[in-house]
Design goal:
By secondary structure, the protein is α+β, with helices and mostly antiparallel strands. Helices cover 35% and strands 22% of the residues. A hairpin with a 4-residue loop joins strand 10 and strand 11. Helix 8 crosses helix 15, helix 11 crosses helix 13 and helix 13 packs across helix 14. Bound molecules: adenosine-5'-diphosphate and 6-deoxy-beta-L-fructofuranose.
């Protein structure tokens, strides 16, 4: 019989990929078969996702995955989808899309915050949903919709799954980012729908990671060359839920930083923390795989760096007509320049709402430094260093608060995602937190996506701790120690990075 392999569709705010996951004994091998850039675009006068273009890329990737599997004598046992959270498509009864989905960076939800909080006290919202306040949370965006009658809101991964299978479901880890999900009951907080004048049937039924969603529609099977019996299985469809499931922790006393466009900084808990102190610190209780709680806060993240690079590339193009410069090289050079600058330079608050929207980021960062009485100048190396110093300080602050509010012990900080490749940021994080930092895997989100599919298929077994040990055994990591310019590479086989210690973040 053909060997089963799993296709992970993982789409972040800055890039998407389709990855094939193979089980080699008890190890998971990931092969990227398709990659594409992503980003919100100005469409019809608003910041939106080119969802039709994204879906074409998904189909291209699935076709490539099928071809690769066939070459290897394998069969795609299932498909799992994860993307960024919060955003949704509005689907009419006939299945058509009411509008091109808005990006959470569009800003239209913000105008609704005061009205929503007038209808339901934010303290009451938090006591039920445990969701951190972000002005773009789904409920504020829904409050801005002029007409929801007869329509269903499908979160982005659920919308893609609907287009693949014809089945409408809402996966629960991502549902927990809407602001309309009960953190304790694990169900929709339907008591909030009527006061917000949202239709009762606005959302599709919930599914948990590991549950089946459907099989491929005939048209999709034809376009991808995959058999129509291929199942689409729910995974942690919130990318951060999948990433946290693949943190290569060997013991319980870990914190994580899921580092991509955002930095999601926190700990894993078994029960939500819904206290007023937690609300005031703006910590979130998002749902993880297996009913866990991702107790974390959003830190502004590498978005600040991505946007500076975009601005500098545009300026460079305007100046020299140079379209050939590679962003990768540019990033490596800038990080090198930043690493040679002394510690103790100016910092900004990376979480400030002033940085949510795109455009003119170097100038906005300079303005923030100057408003606080500092100076930064226009040198890109200095601006990059300011961003990374600010992120590291933000991580340390956030982790200290997570420990204090949750009582969770933390001895090791794991950084996963694209940002785990940023050696300077990893070292600055070790220095700022006083804790060892274990960096990697880069593709933790895809790894988590594949593991949940493999477990649903019976190819691996166990709870999250077992899945994490499996990741730790096979995926390479790099360890950074506080106050040292030294890093250790290798598998975590010795467990040397996981010595229990009191947190240095407090
Ligand atoms: P998302 O899922 O939000 O799209 P990723 O996890 O793909 O984000 O991470 C993207 C980020 O990773 C980039 O913004 C960049 O800062 C960082 N990154 C990617 N490659 C490298 C690299 N070679 N060195 C340092 N940082 C990198
Ligand atoms: C990261 C992420 C994060 C959300 C944001 C909208 O990709 O899913 O967890 O807060 O995007």
């Amino acid at each position: 019989a053909e060997r089963p392999v799993f296709a992970a569709v993982d789409i972040g705010a800055s890039s998407g990929r389709v990855i094939l996951g193979r089980l080699e004994g008890q190890d998971v091998d990931l092969e990227t078969v398709h990659r594409f850039p992503n980003g919100a675009q100005r469409i019809d006068g608003a910041l939106r996702w080119d969802i039709h273009g994204i879906f074409e890329q998904v189909l291209t990737g699935l076709a490539a995955a099928g071809e690769r599997a066939r070459e290897n004598g394998e069969r795609i046992a299932s498909i799992g989808i994860d993307t960024w959270a919060v955003d949704y498509g509005l689907v009419a009864a006939d299945g058509s899309l009411a509008h091109v989905p808005y990006s959470y960076r569009d800003g239209r939800g913000e105008a609704e915050v005061a009205r929503v909080h007038g209808l339901i006290d934010p303290a009451r919202l938090y006591a039920t949903t445990g969701l951190q306040f972000l002005p773009f949370n789904t409920l504020y965006q829904l409050a801005a919709e002029p007409d929801l009658e007869g329509k269903q809101a499908l979160l982005i991964p659920d919308l893609l799954a609907f287009w693949l299978t014809g089945q409408r479901r809402t996966e629960e880890t991502n549902a927990s980012t809407t602001g309309l999900f009960d953190a304790v009951a694990g169900e929709w907080a339907s008591e909030f729908l009527a006061p917000l004048r949202l239709p009762e049937d606005l959302f599709a039924p919930l599914v948990s990671p590991g549950e089946p969603i459907g099989t491929l529609l005939p048209e999709i099977a034809r376009r991808t060359g995959l058999p129509s019996r291929t199942p689409v299985v729910a995974v942690g469809s919130h990318d951060t839920a999948s990433a946290v499931a693949a943190v290569p922790a060997r013991s319980r006393d870990f914190a994580y930083i899921s580092s991509g466009t955002w930095s999601l900084v926190g700990v894993e808990l078994q029960h939500p923390v819904l206290t007023e102190a937690s609300r005031l610190a703006n910590f979130t209780n998002e749902r993880g795989v297996d009913g866990t709680i991702r107790y974390l806060r959003n830190v502004g993240g590498l978005w600040l760096l991505q946007e500076c690079l975009r601005t500098w590339a545009e300026e460079g193009r305007a100046g020299e007509g140079n379209a050939g410069g590679s962003t990768g090289t540019r990033l490596a050079d800038l990080l090198d320049a930043a690493a040679h600058l002394p510690a103790g330079g100016p910092t900004i608050d990376p979480d400030s709402p002033a940085f949510i929207a795109p455009g003119g980021m170097p100038g906005r960062i300079r303005d923030a430094v100057e408003a606080a009485g500092g100076t930064l100048g226009a040198d890109p190396g200095r601006i990059v260093r300011c961003i990374l110093d600010s992120l590291a300080a933000g991580y340390a602050r956030t982790l200290a608060q997570a420990v204090e509010l949750s009582g969770q012990r933390v001895g090791t900080v794991h950084i996963v995602g694209g940002g785990s490749q940023n050696a300077l940021l990893c070292q600055l994080t070790a220095d700022a937190t006083g804790l060892p930092v274990v960096a990697g895997p880069v593709e933790a989100t895809a790894q988590g996506n594949v593991l949940i599919q493999a477990r649903a298929a019976g190819a691996v077994a166990g709870g999250l701790a077992d899945l994490r040990r499996l990741t730790a055994r096979h995926q390479p990591t790099t360890t950074y120690r506080p106050g040292q310019d030294r890093q250790e590479s290798g598998m975590q086989g010795s467990g040397a990075a996981a010595q229990p210690a009191a947190t240095g973040g407090k």
